[in-house]
């Protein structure tokens, strides 16, 4: 079964669970401004206004421009595909009238960007289209359906993520031998990018910051491109990196210590910082199971860091991973306004999360680990081989 | 001056022209669901809720998550960059209150997808944020500003498009020697994709259909992936193809005729169809100048095709090209509902359009030319070397 067939089928079940009669994904020129959900509904971009309709009763329909019709038909995921030339309105109105749904779920959400694929202009167009048939009052957010569709990973999705993790770990092992004092952050990043290319993989995010490489104290912080700063002895180096396999991402961070002249191990303050991070990651993982809220998991790790005397990390403890490195709605995050309601979503079986606390060791650099776990019935299982030891650079 | 510096400066002038006091681009996790306008405002994706503010008085500000702050500062396009940790709300409200704009333009549009970058969920968030400071009634669509920013191409943008056109033409010339009866559409596409790669270019759109290759009668129509259909003598072959240079696209179509055994020229019905297309393209081009509506240009080409006894083409005559192969708002299109008001926008100096009528020659295939023009004060100037002759395959 293809991804699209599998996801359309999964959606039907979710509609019953979340009490929505008809799920309507509405998009146009999706290469410009596409709904991130479209990848589960169509094998490629669509051009003119397009509607993908999945009913609670299992009936499905796509209404697309004439030139996209055959491509969508080939996906063999819909009972029918309507190809129009002049207007999507009549076929859409006709179909919705026939289904007569009490609740029509559409892809918008204030709290979850991944469920917020409908643009405001398209919302207005859809509202006007449904008002003409007296159904404007039936629109509801499909957030719960879209979230679950992305978050409850199928075996195939988990296999792809595991493959992406394995390849990321292999490249981290390889670059550990390339890091030597005097090399620049940018050179290290270029080495890894070449490995990505050589293995015919794609970086998991914007190649300007994938990998991100930070060495020593006073780095720019996350999401910044690698610089011409040279690796120095006695500094901590950390990297954030991931790849994509079949469209599914990994997202891992590793911390290295560049041994000073004559040193055979990291100094105590670096070891203590690293041990604190390892403890925080493991405590968080042990707290994760279906039903728990992310805000509680975040608090456990955050407290370990602050109790040890470090400043709290200025971001969430962990996020979901899927087709995007930041995916899904539920978040292992603090109750900060920008995170909306995401930290209060209960964890569910099949979710894939990162755990990534950080702290600064003054004069040395930033210590951070990011490992990935799968939420199972019995708790969170490692998807990556968790970093338990500092990687020492001679 | 960088693209971002140039476009922010250009935007200031557009705000006065279109009577908007403050232009506010609001986005989050832009790698997932980004506003297509962001590329003119930031050097890469942003993560947390981010606001880019350009004032009619020339004052500018970016409000972004802490981890994006340094990247945006490096772009040196804003008077100030605020990096926040917990909430974008307070810094945004404070800045907007200080500016006290009568009209706040935001990126939504029913009629123009390229100006419709704000998601509905983010619109609701922004509305609530501005309601708290009593400014919710000041929101207007920034469509005219965003359109003009994309459509009035700078010299640098035109140079990139010209370079993309040149490279596309070179690959078309090369593939003409590769096409022989018996080769499949997919093989021809693969040859072109390899040329794209070899020249370190990127395809202008989804590589599954860039190039699109259609041979003989009863093809799937535009936007369909190349198939295992073999090139046959006596058939017409057409291809749709473009590349990107510095983020700017080309989009060209060429028609080939595969000579039958003993033929030295195409048969009369193919020549007549091709001549009709050439005539339609040239008549449309001659009609294009600033102030003319696209609907009038479309009608001229459409009438030439139907007067010659062919069915009208089921799409617009031409679209703008820019950072996307389908870009801008103004369209050379018919008054069909799905095209909204786009065909009624007046052409302006600096717009780049395709002209791409098509017709079917029964039993032979689809004849179509797509060439590109730049609207100048004195009319439309070719950006591509227009196809005037069928390319004959021995």
Annotation keywords:
homodimer; 394 residues; alpha+beta; Creatine Amidinohydrolase, Chain A, domain 1; Creatine Amidinohydrolase; 2 domains; 33% helix
Note down, in words, how this protein is organized.
2 copies of one chain form a homodimer. Chain A has 10 helices and 20 strands. Chain A has helices spanning 3-17, 30-33, 66-74, 89-99, 120-131, 143-151, 155-176, 185-198, 268-287, 294-307; strands at 22-27, 50-55, 60-65, 80-84, 104-106, 139-141, 202-203, 212-215, 236-241, 243-245, 248-249, 252-258, 318-320, 327-332, 352-355, 358-361, 365-368, 371-376, 379-382, 391-393. In chain A, helix 9 (268-287) packs antiparallel against helix 10. In chain A, 55% of the residues are buried. The first copy, chain A, is of the alpha+beta class. Chain A has a 6-stranded mixed sheet, sandwiched between helices. At the A-B interface, helix 2, helix 3 and helix 5 of A face helix 2, helix 3 and helix 5 of B.
CATH fold naming of the largest domain in chain A: Creatine Amidinohydrolase
Low-confidence stretches of chain A: none
The value of Rg of chain A in angstroms is 23 Å
Structural class of chain A: alpha+beta
Q: What is the terminal separation of chain A in angstroms?
A: 50 Å
Q: Helix proportion of residues of chain A, in percent?
A: 25-40%
Order of helices and strands of chain A: HEHEEHEHEHEHHHEEEEEEHHEEEEEEEE
* Major sheet size, sense and barrel closure of chain A: 6 strands, mixed
As an assembly, this protein is homodimer
Percent strand of chain A equals 15-25%
Sheet with most strands: strand arrangement of chain A: 4-3-2-1-5-6
Number of β-strand runs of chain A: 20
- What is the total domain count of chain A? 2
Q: Return the CATH class of the largest domain in chain A.
A: Alpha Beta
CATH superfamily of the largest domain in chain A: Creatinase/methionine aminopeptidase superfamily
Please state the second-level CATH architecture of the largest domain in chain A. Alpha-Beta Complex
Helical segment tally of chain A?
10
Round the mean pLDDT of chain A to the nearest integer and report it. 96
């Amino acid at each position: 079964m293809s991804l699209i067939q599998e996801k359309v089928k999964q959606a039907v079940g979710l509609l019953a669970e979340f009490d929505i009669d008809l799920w309507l994904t509405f998009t146009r020129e999706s290469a410009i401004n596409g709904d991130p959900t479209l990848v589960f509904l169509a094998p490629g971009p669509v051009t003119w206004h397009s509607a993908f309709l999945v009913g609670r009763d299992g009936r499905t329909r796509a209404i697309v421009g004439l030139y996209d019709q055959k491509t969508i038909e080939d996906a063999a995921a819909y009972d029918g595909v309507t190809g129009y030339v002049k207007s999507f309105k009549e076929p859409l109105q006709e179909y919705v009238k026939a289904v007569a749904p009490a609740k029509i779920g559409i892809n918008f959400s204030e709290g979850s960007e991944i469920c917020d694929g409908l643009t405001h202009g398209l919302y207005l167009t859809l509202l006007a289209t449904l008002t003409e048939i007296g159904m404007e009052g039936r629109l509801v957010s499909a957030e719960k359906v879209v979230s679950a569709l992305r978050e409850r990973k199928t075996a195939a999705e988990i296999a792809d993520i595991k493959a992406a993790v394995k390849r990321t770990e292999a490249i981290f092992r390889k670059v550990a031998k390339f890091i030597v004092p005097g090399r620049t952050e940018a050179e290290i990043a270029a080495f890894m990018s070449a490995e990505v290319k050589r293995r015919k993989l794609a970086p998991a995010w914007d190649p300007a910051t994938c990998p991100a490489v930070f060495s020593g104290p006073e780095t720019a912080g996350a999401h910044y491109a690698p610089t011409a700063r040279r690796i120095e002895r006695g500094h901590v180096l950390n990297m954030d990196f991931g790849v994509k396999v079949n469209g599914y991402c990994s997202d891992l961070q590793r911390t290295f210590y560049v041994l000073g002249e004559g040193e055979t191990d990291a100094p105590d303050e670096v070891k203590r910082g690293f041990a604190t991070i390892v403890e925080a990651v493991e405590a968080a993982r042990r707290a994760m199971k279906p039903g728990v809220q992310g805000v509680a998991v975040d608090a456990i790790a955050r407290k370990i860091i602050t109790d040890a005397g470090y400043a709290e990390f200025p971001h969430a403890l962990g996020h979901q991973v899927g087709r995007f490195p930041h995916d899904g709605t539920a978040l292992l995050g603090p109750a900060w306004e920008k995170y909306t309601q995401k930290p209060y979503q209960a964890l569910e079986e099949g979710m894939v999360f990162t755990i990534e606390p950080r702290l600064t060791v003054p004069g040395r650099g930033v210590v951070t680990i990011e490992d990935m776990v799968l939420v199972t019935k019995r708790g969170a299982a490692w998807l990556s081989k968790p970093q338990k030891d500092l990687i020492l650079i001679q």
